[in-house]
Specification:
The complex is a heterodimer of chains A (99) and B (501).
Chain A: E1 5-11, H1 16-32, E2 37-43, H2 48-53, E3 61-66, E4 71-74, H3 80-86
Parallel strand pairs in A: 1-2
Antiparallel strand pairs in A: 1-3, 3-4
Chain B: E1 8-10, E2 13-16, H1 23-26, E3 31-32, E4 36-41, H2 47-62, E5 66-70, H3 75-83, H4 89-94, E6 98-102, E7 111-113, H5 120-133, E8 137-141, H6 143-149, H7 153-169, E9 173-179, E10 199-208, E11 211-221, E12 230-236, E13 240-243, E14 259-260, H8 265-270, E15 275-276, E16 280-285, H9 291-304, E17 309-313, H10 318-327, H11 333-337, E18 341-345, H12 353-367, E19 371-375, H13 377-381, H14 386-402, E20 406-412, H15 422-427, E21 433-442, E22 445-455, E23 465-470, E24 473-479, E25 483-484, E26 492-493
Parallel strand pairs in B: 4-9, 4-10, 5-6, 5-8, 8-9, 16-20, 16-21, 17-18, 17-19, 19-20
Antiparallel strand pairs in B: 1-2, 2-3, 10-11, 11-12, 12-13, 14-15, 21-22, 22-23, 23-24, 25-26
Helix pairs in contact in B: 5-7, 12-14
Classes of the chains: A alpha+beta (99), B alpha/beta (501).
């Protein structure tokens, strides 16, 4: 039952927004996925090819690589409900569907 | 322009050629170098082709690499679409002269928005692509797709402004395409003109009387010259956009000064030695004045000189046409059998004008004639809107000229005695020479008169000459003496002076 989560966070530079996104992500993961997640931070300024490969346009972008399917969340992850929804960490009954 | 991607100086700001025939003349040299130009248009207005052609021109003409940022279509689609225009994008990618920055959305991936963001990654990728390839040209197609995908419009606008500023700092000449909702409404959606306000080109795709009409207009080029107003353009399958700068048309250099016979010796003399090989001649006159005969002599003259000839007839059946020709001692059959002559007779009503245009072009490219006669434009005018007709003539004229083919078109005047034909009024600026045929009533008798009204870049006999028609064809005689107002259709006898004599 305990699925491993691989989360890649794409940012551009050491900005306040980048730092905020990482802190928000870490907090959520500690609460929801303790012990079964891994976070990789990729700075697109330093690794533009990685940004190219993943076709990153907006930053921060969080990509859930594992478990499948791949999910993308953009923003500084300050909207906790949306992050949980994006990572599929809430059941369908617990939340109103989008739109 | 020769060598390097060197902008041509024009009015203080350097310009960069777009490679879009005609546009560079309208834009007085091309797009402002080192700036961003907004290319705005409704869906289907050929914005993407414009952008692709701009990059292709940089590579072809100046060996200058380009970056194509695609926000809507995937690179695979664009490679295929651009390939159809003859731009080998995959080859250029392989040798590093064309770089895609793929910003197109993945339809299988849902994106959730959770908090604030910016398009920093897009800027980083664009900068990386420009620096890696040494690009001098860049296109972003289209901004609308970005706005559709990222709902924070203010943030997207801010980021696009940053991108434009960064491109300027990098010395890159850029095109950003943007959507419009209406052909004559606001410049673009989402207020994008605010951050690339310096240079705006509008592409239009207007449906008018069930006929499609494409035009482009340079709305503004800050601090530099350009032609004003809307100019028609077409999209050719193997070449991309071709704009037709009507008023600038006279500026274009004619590639040949080679003369070719009109098929009538005296008319050749009146024109100062014949028609130019790549010129378009309009023959205008009332019914029965001899227009079809001129088309016949033009064709026969070409055949006699060993040229390949094509005759498009829209007024008469094939039998009628052959019979007419025989009546003037011209037999088309041997030349047709020998493969030097192609005759196509069609009723205008069998197809729309656009279809006629395509058929004519295809037929010309298949047969590769040295000269083409078309009898008559007026018949084709019946199946078109005025604007559609004008564009037909523009397109056909530029097509023929490009191939250095001599063309002769006929047009009918509505009244027997004179006045300009509707066709003539429409297209006189497009043709190199105009010959008018008139009935002239003098002392109770009707004569025929001929005048060369306009002859591109050369002197010609400005007199109005009598002519007659018999079983050997057209015979041009002496000028009318002592009469004025023939062209207007109201001949008035004046007393002869020594000067006239």
């Amino acid at each position: 039952m305990a699925q491993e989560y691989l989360l890649r966070l794409y940012v551009t530079g050491q900005t306040a927004r980048s730092a905020r996104a990482l802190a928000n992500l870490q907090a959520i993961c500690e609460e929801e996925l303790q012990g079964r997640y891994r976070i990789e931070v990729i700075d697109v300024l330093e690794n533009p090819e990685r940004g190219e490969d993943e076709r990153i346009v907006a930053t921060p972008t969080l990509i859930r690589e594992l478990p499948p399917p791949i999910r993308r969340i953009i923003g500084d992850l300050s909207d906790r409900d949306e992050v949980l929804h994006g990572l599929e960490l809430v059941g369908p009954g617990q939340r109103e569907p989008l739109q | 322009m020769t060598g390097g991607d060197q902008p041509a100086p024009a009015g203080g700001i350097d310009k960069l050629v777009t490679g879009i025939p005609g546009f560079d003349a309208i834009a007085r040299g091309g797009l402002p170098a080192g700036r961003t130009t907004l290319v705005a248009g409704t869906p289907g207005s050929a914005k993407t082709v414009f952008a692709g052609q701009f990059l292709a021109a940089g590579i072809r003409r100046d060996d200058a690499p380009g970056v194509f940022v695609t926000c809507e279509e995937g690179p695979a689609d664009l490679r295929r679409n651009f390939g159809a225009f003859g731009w080998p994008v995959d080859d250029w990618e392989a040798d590093g002269r064309w770089v895609f920055v793929d910003v197109s959305p993945d339809p299988d991936e849902e994106t959730v928005e959770a908090g604030s963001y910016d398009l920093g990654a897009l800027l980083a990728r664009i900068e990386h692509a420009v620096e890696r390839s040494g690009a001098r040209r860049l296109a972003i197609d289209s901004l609308g797709a970005l706005f559709a995908r990222f709902p924070d419009t203010r943030q997207v606008r801010r980021d696009l402004f940053r991108i434009a500023a960064r491109l300027k700092a990098l010395g890159v000449t850029a095109i950003m395409t943007a959507e419009r909702e209406t052909e004559y409404g606001p410049v673009a959606r989402h207020g994008v003109e605010e951050f690339v306000a310096d240079n705006v080109v509008i592409l239009r795709n207007i449906l008018e009387h069930e006929t499609r009409r494409r035009t482009l207009e340079i709305l503004k080029f800050r601090g530099t010259q350009h032609q004003k107003g809307e100019y028609p353009f077409t999209i050719l399958p193997d070449a991309g956009l071709i704009a037709i700068p009507l008023s600038a048309m006279e500026l274009t250099q004619h590639s040949t000064d080679v003369r070719t016979t009109s098929g009538n010796e005296e008319l050749d003399r009146m024109c100062g030695g014949g028609f130019y090989r790549d010129s378009i001649v309009l023959v205008s006159g009332a019914t029965g004045t001899g227009k079809t005969l001129m088309a016949t002599e033009f064709t026969e003259g070409g055949l006699a000189a060993g040229e390949r000839c094509m005759l498009f007839a829209f007024e008469e059946s094939r039998e009628q046409l052959m019979r007419n020709a025989r009546g003037w001692d011209v037999d088309y059959a041997p030349a047709e059998e020998a493969g030097n002559l192609a005759i196509r007779c069609e009723y205008p009503e069998v197809a729309g004008l656009e279809d006629h245009l395509v058929r004519i072009k295809e037929a010309i490219d298949r047969f590769r004639p040295d000269r083409v006669a078309l009898d008559s434009l007026t018949a084709l005018e019946r199946v078109a809107t005025p604007r559609g007709f004008r564009e037909f003539v523009i397109s056909l004229t530029s097509f023929i000229k490009e191939r250095q083919i001599a063309g002769l078109f006929t047009a009918s005047t509505p009244s027997l005695m004179g006045g300009a034909s509707v066709t003539e009024a429409h297209i006189s600026t497009l043709t190199d020479s105009i010959i008018v045929l008139r009935y002239v009533e003098m002392r109770g008798r009707v004569h025929r008169g001929l005048a060369v009204l306009k002859m591109r870049g050369a002197g010609h006999d400005a007199g109005i000459r009598r002519f007659s028609i018999d079983h050997r064809g057209m015979h041009i005689g002496e000028p009318f003496r002592g009469v004025e107002g023939i062209l207007e259709g109201h001949p008035v006898h004046v007393r002869q002076t020594d000067e006239d004599a």
